[in-house]
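To whoever is on call:

I kicked off a structure prediction for a single chain this morning and the downstream step that reads the tokens threw a length-mismatch warning. I double-checked the sequence; it's 113 residues and nothing unusual in it as far as I can see. Pasting both halves so you can look.
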Amino acid sequence: MSYDEALAERVRDVLSTRRDVEERKMFGGLCFMVNGGMCCGLTSTSFMVRVGPEQFADALAQPHARPMDFTGRPSKGMVYVAPAGLKTKAALAKWVKRGVDFVTTLPAKKKKR
């Protein structure tokens, strides 16, 4: 798996106060699951955040954000954030919070055995 391990560690730090965080290797990178739902993650080249369809337009209006197009088609409700938008701890925390805010509105998923 090829992703920015330093950024992964920064995300872990932001999420460190939560007890419902899991990490899963997905999309050729690393995803952070909160309450059983994918919150955010890292691919080999990008940081992605699951903001949900209702917050999608607002997220795209933020500097350094673009639609997530992992398969070649934009995915409504998910954005990529460029490294320039993640330089500070506060900036990263704000994006991670967007993902947490969305996934915590969803029903909790049961763990697979």
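Update from on-call: the warning came from a stale cache, not from the record. Cleared it. Sanity check on the structure: Residues 89-103 form the longest helix (15 residues).
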